[in-house]
């Protein structure tokens, strides 16, 4: 299943593996523009405990490019724009 393009003024956040289980969603739309640090604090507010249980160990991409996940309270200059696609990718193991 492909994710539909967000409407003007929004971006998509894609949830994979444990992030999808934690939120109960595969993706959702967020208003844009939005600083990455604000997105992370908003995720914690919407899904209490997500920072410690998911975000602390995940990787993130913005438009398929890996980005550093800022620590809580850190400021950054990365501002997500409308139509951006952010993916939250928890660690996976193979065996």
TrEMBL record:
<dbReference type="GO" id="GO:1990133">
    <property type="term" value="C:molybdopterin adenylyltransferase complex"/>
</dbReference>
<dbReference type="GO" id="GO:1990140">
    <property type="term" value="C:molybdopterin synthase complex"/>
</dbReference>
<comment type="pathway">
    <text>Cofactor biosynthesis; molybdopterin biosynthesis.</text>
</comment>
<dbReference type="InterPro" id="IPR016155">
    <property type="entry name" value="Mopterin_synth/thiamin_S_b"/>
</dbReference>
<feature type="modified residue" description="1-thioglycine; alternate">
    <location>
        <position position="95"/>
    </location>
</feature>
<dbReference type="Pfam" id="PF02597">
    <property type="entry name" value="ThiS"/>
</dbReference>
<comment type="subunit">
    <text>Heterotetramer; composed of 2 small (MOCS2A) and 2 large (MOCS2B) subunits.</text>
</comment>
<feature type="modified residue" description="Glycyl adenylate; alternate">
    <location>
        <position position="95"/>
    </location>
</feature>
<keyword id="KW-0963">Cytoplasm</keyword>
<dbReference type="InterPro" id="IPR044672">
    <property type="entry name" value="MOCS2A"/>
</dbReference>
<keyword id="KW-0597">Phosphoprotein</keyword>
<dbReference type="InterPro" id="IPR028887">
    <property type="entry name" value="MOCS2A_euk"/>
</dbReference>
<dbReference type="InterPro" id="IPR003749">
    <property type="entry name" value="ThiS/MoaD-like"/>
</dbReference>
<keyword id="KW-0547">Nucleotide-binding</keyword>
<dbReference type="GO" id="GO:0000166">
    <property type="term" value="F:nucleotide binding"/>
</dbReference>
<comment type="function">
    <text>Acts as a sulfur carrier required for molybdopterin biosynthesis. Component of the molybdopterin synthase complex that catalyzes the conversion of precursor Z into molybdopterin by mediating the incorporation of 2 sulfur atoms into precursor Z to generate a dithiolene group. In the complex, serves as sulfur donor by being thiocarboxylated (-COSH) at its C-terminus by UBA4. After interaction with MOCS2B, the sulfur is then transferred to precursor Z to form molybdopterin.</text>
</comment>
<comment type="similarity">
    <text>Belongs to the MoaD family. MOCS2A subfamily.</text>
</comment>
<dbReference type="InterPro" id="IPR012675">
    <property type="entry name" value="Beta-grasp_dom_sf"/>
</dbReference>
<protein>
    <recommendedName>
        <fullName>Molybdopterin synthase sulfur carrier subunit</fullName>
    </recommendedName>
</protein>
<keyword id="KW-0501">Molybdenum cofactor biosynthesis</keyword>
<dbReference type="GO" id="GO:0030366">
    <property type="term" value="F:molybdopterin synthase activity"/>
</dbReference>
<dbReference type="GO" id="GO:0006777">
    <property type="term" value="P:Mo-molybdopterin cofactor biosynthetic process"/>
</dbReference>
């Amino acid at each position: 299943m492909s994710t539909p393009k967000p409407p003007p003024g929004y971006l998509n956040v894609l949830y994979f593996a444990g992030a999808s289980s934690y939120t109960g969603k595969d993706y959702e739309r967020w208003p844009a523009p939005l600083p990455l640090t604000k997105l992370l604090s908003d995720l914690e507010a919407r899904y209490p405990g997500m920072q410690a249980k998911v975000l602390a160990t995940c990787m993130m991409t913005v438009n398929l490019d890996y980005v550093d996940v800022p620590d809580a309270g850190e400021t950054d200059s990365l501002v997500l724009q409308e139509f951006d696609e952010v993916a939250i990718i928890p660690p996976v193991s193979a065996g």
